[in-house]
Write a structure and sequence with these properties.
CATH class of the largest domain in chain A: Alpha Beta
Oligomer: heterodimer
Helix content of chain A: 10-25%
Strand content of chain B: 15-25%
Structural class of chain A: alpha/beta
CATH architecture of the largest domain in chain B: 2-Layer Sandwich
Number of domains of chain B: 4
Number of strands of chain B: 18
CATH topology of the largest domain in chain A: Rossmann fold
Number of strands of chain A: 19
Distance between the termini of chain A: 67 Å
Radius of gyration of chain B: 24 Å
Distance between the termini of chain B: 50 Å
Order of helices and strands of chain A: EEEHEEEEHEHEHHEEHEHEHEHEEHEEEH
Largest sheet of chain A: 10 strands, mixed
Number of domains of chain A: 2
Largest interface: A-B, 53 and 57 residues
Shape of chain B: globular
């Protein structure tokens, strides 16, 4: 028997409308639309805190094929605001999975629109740029949808990191280790912490608005500034903390939002990109070693290349081979470096995990 | 330093006559390579014994030699021309074996001609099963327990040790010839004899069979700086035990989690980097145990292959063309993506569609041939279809087979019932996919079919969806067929003729066409652009599908 599917609708803030079918939780959801070109790792993407506030289009045409598995997550819950896909699959085959994607997203209160011509939609977003959107399985009147959509704030200037940061400090790894790292959590991915702990590091994870004094009280060998959602320019509190951290002259490593914050702490501006980079196939060249890396990326903001060229103390270490955007920087007078992409990957290629080793080496020297 | 300017002329070696296991894919790679090198201002000299190829057209190379692929021919060409380098990786195993033979005789050296894009030690390691096994042990990658045998006696000794079923693989052969499965002791002597005789060096590998494991292939490119990219991941619908050339294959991989895929990617890169020192294309095959996600390496081919031709078409990434540029010294980050023309060639294609390849067999022309599929390739060609879902792609592929298949729905309607069909599909044969669909139509469960065939359940669930749609269509006449159902059918790759045959009452494909046209259900065209629409593409190609 052919199951009848209930309808769902997607409206973009520029008026673009698509109808499809509904999966996941019933309801309405608003957020910034973005697309991810990765062909594996949907569960890791959905649970990545950097996607907070975003409705994600998956370019890959079948989503849900291998179900969900408790350990394939980047945080304790799903962080995306909504999901847009071409073929949403309830039936899966992976023997290690215990739950289908639909049940999983219902439990996590996520609205899904399926059956969408995602290619046309991605082309639209690529051309028109990032904007807010609304998906619904209950409101079909476009005027009402437009009203609801207007209530959603723009991602530009939006501070989200403190909403997904840990509420309490916690420690991970071997507490007897002589390598200690103080982590500033702006929505850290679980596998970044794994990459640190796997290297014998004892970490203490701190809430976003932790003072420098409190970080220092851990007497760390190095500081880590995490990834996270939202506009870095809306986080002066973090920039101030990082400025104090830098005065310590201890190794500092930043990823994604952490990279942008390190830039801001050095007087380098950030900007909102047209539609960002999200996927598992972005080419990056390490211009120090000449080697190339295929990287996982998820960012809608970038650092201003001109400001870097004007700053004698900051050196570009990595560039994007597609659009020459800045992918990595380091300070000349301090052991501090950061990358725009995700060396921990998950999902994605492990080409860049050497950066965690570099961080360890800096701390050991 | 981009390209190596000391190379002014290159010899490309073709693959000779079209035989089962080595067909026009090497014409495709040879032609691409010739074009790619000539655009760099390099003089291209080409040898192939098969005049019925594109690569031997006068405009493809500066000089074409239609000569037998022998050491004598190569020597003659080297005498008549001043050739700086030979590119042996475009002509399949035939070209590689010939170039190796020439190398062993010291002829390349004598004429001051370098082999580029490959290294002989790498060919040896890849082709010699024992060297391959040793390399895998050294780099910590699992393989199936195996041992080399040069005599029937040696083979039997090891077979007793590992037990049945096992696989006999013949060294240095094409398309798996000389290889086969041995299910019990009574088949062993004959299989060893056939395998040893097929091998030019009288050598076979006796290997424990990993029947029922899932099979995957990765297409890689490496440059002289050791940058490696995965161009395409291909999943075999048929599990281990059917030659990849005879398997229905799907790209991108459909049933792999990111954890399993990254494990595979890391291992493939490690394997390629461990295998000698060359810049070019490479294919790695893995088997994955669905129970544990344990991965073992099956083989590595340090050259462009049948699979890389498919991967090129599937992704839009011209593997042979880029491999030729890498062979003359470019690095991937110096080259542009040939489709977007703005982004880098150092990247991994992202697909927003599904590719299905189905082999085409011609058993009716080979009377008396055994139509059971196994290690030795038997198909004479293949079709590739692109769709916005697996179902659409597999149905389009079936429609392209140029036999009587009208989609996956209709082909030589089997009269077999329940248990008989289940028994029949246990053995891989050319029509298995159609009989699986018959079984699902009859209500046999996905679980039973998965157990009988070893095919991943996800694919079977998808085919089951097709059956549900077909059953629903069958309840209608052309007039009563609802718009939503027609739309759903078209999105699942049902052809107009297929729908007309399923519908009640008399109607033709033209009636179905007229009906859907009046409802505005028409084709749209989508691009193969290497990047899933992320960037604008300047020279893409298109496929048709149904959206909305």
């Amino acid at each position: 028997m052919l199951a009848t599917k209930s309808p769902a609708i997607l409206l973009l803030s520029d008026g673009y409308v698509i109808k499809g079918f509904h999966y996941g939780k019933s309801g309405t959801s608003v957020g910034e639309i973005c697309f991810n070109t990765g062909m594996t790792g949907y569960q890791e993407v959905f649970t990545d805190p950097s996607y907070t506030g975003q409705v994600v289009i998956m370019n890959n045409v079948h989503i849900g094929n291998y179900g969900t598995k408790e350990t394939d997550v980047e945080s304790a819950s799903v962080k995306i605001k909504g999901l847009i896909c071409r073929n949403f699959e309830e039936q899966y085959s992976r023997l290690q999975s215990k739950k289908n994607l639909n049940e999983y997203l219902i439990e996590n209160n996520i609205v899904v629109i399926d059956g969408v011509d995602t290619r046309a939609l991605v082309t639209h977003v690529r051309t028109k740029g990032a904007m807010n959107c609304i998906i619904s399985s209950e409101i079909f009147d476009e005027e009402t949808l437009t009203e609801e959509l207007a209530k959603c704030p723009s991602m530009d200037g939006c501070e989200l990191a403190s909403t997904v940061s840990t509420a309490e400090e916690y420690e991970l790894g071997d507490s007897s280790s002589n390598l200690k790292v103080a982590v500033l959590d702006f929505g850290i991915k679980k596998n970044i912490l794994n990459c640190l702990v796997e290297r014998g590091i004892h970490v203490r994870v701190h809430p976003a608005k932790t003072s420098f004094e409190r970080l220092k009280a851990f007497s760390p060998n190095g500081y880590f500034i995490s990834n996270g959602p939202g506009d870095p320019a809306s986080m002066p509190y973090a920039v101030e903390t990082i400025k104090s951290v830098l005065k310590e002259n201890k190794p500092v490593f930043g990823i994604c939002l952490g990279h942008q914050l390190l830039a801001l702490a050095n007087g380098i501006g950030t900007f909102k990109m047209h539609h960002g980079h999200r996927g598992l196939n972005h080419p990056v060249k390490n211009i120090i070693t000449g080697q190339c890396e295929i990287t996982t990326q998820n960012h809608g903001f970038g650092v201003n290349p001109k400001d870097i060229t004007n700053n004698a103390n900051v050196e570009i270490t990595h560039i994007n081979l597609n659009d020459n955007s800045i992918e990595g920087i380091r300070l000349k007078d301090k052991p501090a470096f950061s990358v725009q992409y995700h060396p921990e990957a998950t999902p994605g290629p492990h080409d860049s995990r050497y950066l965690f080793d570099d961080f360890v080496s800096l701390m050991k020297n | 330093m981009p390209k190596d300017n000391s190379i002014k002329s290159i010899l490309i070696v073709g693959s000779g006559p079209i035989v089962i296991g080595q067909a026009c894919e090497f014409d495709y790679s040879g032609s691409q390579a010739a074009r790619s090198l000539r655009e760099e201002g390099i003089e291209v000299i080409l040898i192939n014994s098969n005049p019925a190829t594109i690569m031997t057209d006068p405009m493809m190379a500066d000089k074409v030699y239609l000569l037998p692929l022998t050491v004598e021919s190569i020597e003659k060409i080297l005498q008549e021309n001043n050739i700086d380098a030979v590119l042996p990786t475009m002509g399949g195993q035939t070209a590689l074996n010939l170039c190796k033979e020439v190398d062993e005789l010291g002829i390349w050296e004598q004429y001051n001609c370098r082999m580029i894009g490959v290294d002989v030690a790498a060919i040896n390691t890849a082709e010699d099963r024992e060297l391959f096994r040793q390399l895998m042990v050294k780099i910590g990658i699992g393989t199936s327990p195996s041992r080399v045998a040069n005599s029937i006696l040696e083979g039997k000794e090891f077979a007793q040790e590992i037990g049945f079923p096992l696989v006999i693989r013949s060294s240095f052969t094409l398309g798996g010839s000389g290889g086969g499965f041995v299910h019990n002791k009574s088949e062993l002597d004959e299989a060893l004899k056939v395998g040893l005789e097929a091998s030019p060096i009288h050598e076979v590998l006796v290997e424990k069979a990993v029947l029922g494991w899932k099979e995957f292939e990765l297409e890689l490119l490496r440059d002289k700086n050791d940058n490696v990219v995965i161009i395409c991941t291909v999943e075999n619908l048929d599990p281990m035990g059917v030659h990849t050339g005879d398997s229905i294959t799907v790209a991108p991989a459909m049933t792999l989690s990111d954890t399993a895929f990254q494990d595979m990617r890391n291992k493939a890169i490690l394997m390629m980097r461990s295998l000698g020192n060359f810049a070019g294309g490479c294919n790695v095959q893995f088997a994955l145990n669905p129970e544990t996600e344990e991965l073992i390496a099956v083989e590595i081919n340090p050259r462009v292959s049948r699979s890389s031709a498919l991967a090129s078409k599937a992704t839009g990434y011209p593997i042979a063309k880029i491999a030729a540029k890498l062979a003359i010294g470019y690095s991937l980050d110096e080259l542009k993506n040939q489709i977007t023309q703005t982004t880098s060639a150092y990247f991994e294609p992202a697909l927003d569609y599904v590719i299905v390849k189905i082999p085409r067999w011609n058993f009716d022309k080979f009377k008396g041939a055994n139509d059971t599929l196994g290690l030795q390739m038997k198909s004479v060609g293949e079709v590739m279809a692109i769709g916005r879902s697996f179902n659409e792609a597999i149905q389009k592929a079936c429609q392209s087979l140029e036999n009587e298949a009208v989609g996956l729905g209709y082909y030589g309607k089997s009269l077999m019932k329940g248990a008989d069909v289940v028994e029949y599909i246990k053995t891989p044969k050319w029509d298995r996919i159609f009989r699986i669909k018959d079984a699902l139509m009859q209500g046999v469960t996905v679980k039973t079919i998965a157990q009988a065939t070893g095919i991943d359940r996800w694919f079977l669930y998808q085919i089951q969806k097709l059956c549900t749609i077909e059953t629903e269509i069958g309840k209608h006449t052309i007039d009563s067929l609802p718009e939503d159902l027609l739309k759903l059918a078209k999105r699942n790759g049902f052809g107009d003729e297929q729908i007309s045959r399923i519908l009640h009452g008399n109607c033709t494909d033209e009636d179905v066409y007229a009906k859907r046209k009046s409802l505005g259900i028409t084709r749209v065209y989508k691009m193969v652009d290497t990047c899933a629409a992320e960037f604008e593409a300047n020279t893409p190609y298109f496929y048709s599908t149904f959206e909305g």
